[in-house]
DNA sequence: CACGCATAAGCGCATACACGCATAAGTGCA
DNA sequence: TGCACTTATGCGTGTATGCGCTTATGCGTG
C-alpha cells in the first residue's frame, strides 16, 4: 500500500497541490490550477490520482469541487506525507 | 530532490531491498537476488536506481559489490525512508 | 592466459504515465 | 430552456519505466 502512495507523491504538481492543501483548508480545482499555472485537465487528473491514493478527499459544493487532505488517512501514510512535505520545503529553502 | 527519492521508492523490489539493507549491514547483489527471488539483471538495475537516488552506496569487494544504506543521506530524506519502511512493515503485519 | 563467478549494461519490447485537445457532465442563474 | 462556469473524461501521442535476453566487464584462481 505505501507503493500506491509513493507513486502518487512522485510528481511535482501533485506535491505542490498537497502543499497547498496542507494548510488544512479546502481548495477547488480552479484555485489550484491558477496557483500552480497548469491546465484544467491536468489539474483535475492529478487530483484524481491523489484521491485514488487516499491522500485527499473531495466534496461537491455547487459548481465547485473542493479538495482537502483525507482526514482519515492511516497514520503510517500520514507520517510519510509529513516527511515528504518537510523535505520538499527544505529543498525550497535551499533554492531560495 | 524528494521526487527522485520517491520515484526510487515506488517499487516493491526496491522497497524490499531497502528493508534488507535497513539492518545496517552490507549485502551483495547475489544475496539480495536470492532473497527476493528476482533475476540478476533486474536486481542490478534496481540497485543502480537506488544508488542514483542517493539512498544506497556500493563498494567493490573482490568479485562482489556490497551495498549498504547511504550513511550520508540528508536528514529529510532519511526521515522519508524511515516513514516508508515503517508503513511497509505495518502493511506486512496486516497481511500476516 | 584461461576459466568461472559476480555484476553491469546494451537492446528490444510491452506497458504505464502524462499531456493537450476536445467534449461531456454537473451546477447555478436568467 | 439556454447560457456561463467548473470539473471530469475520451482520445491520440510522446515519453518513461520495467523486464528478459544477451553480452561485456571486473575479479580471483589455477
Summarize the model shown:
Helix content of chain A is 62%, strand content 15%.
3D architecture notes:
Two copies of one chain form a homodimer. In chain A, 62% of the residues lie in helices and 15% in strands. The first copy, chain A, is an alpha+beta fold and 96 residues long. Chain A has one domain: Orthogonal Bundle (Arc Repressor Mutant, subunit A), CATH 1.10.10. Chain A has a three-stranded antiparallel beta sheet with strand order 1-3-2. In chain A, helix 3 packs across helix 4 (40-52). The longest helix of chain A is centred in the last third of the chain and has 21 residues, at 75-95. The mean pLDDT of chain A is 95. The interface between A and B is medium-sized, with 23 and 24 residues.
Topology:
The structure is a homodimer of 96-residue chains.
Chain A: H1 2-9, H2 12-21, E1 27-28, H3 29-36, H4 40-52, E2 56-61, E3 64-69, H5 75-95
Helix pairs in contact in A: 3-4
The structure holds a DNA duplex (30 and 30 nucleotides).
Amino acid at each position: 500500500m505505501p507503493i500506491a502512495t509513493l507513486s502518487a507523491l512522485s510528481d511535482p504538481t501533485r506535491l505542490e497541490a498537497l502543499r497547498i492543501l496542507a494548510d488544512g483548508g479546502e481548495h477547488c480545482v480552479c484555485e489550484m490550477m491558477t496557483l500552480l499555472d497548469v491546465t484544467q485537465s491536468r489539474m483535475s487528473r492529478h487530483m484524481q490520482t491523489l484521491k485514488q491514493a487516499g491522500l485527499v478527499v473531495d466534496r461537491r459544493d455547487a459548481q465547485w469541487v473542493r479538495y482537502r487532505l483525507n482526514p482519515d488517512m492511516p497514520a503510517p501514510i500520514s507520517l510519510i506525507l509529513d516527511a515528504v512535505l518537510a523535505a520538499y520545503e527544505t529543498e525550497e529553502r535551499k533554492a531560495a
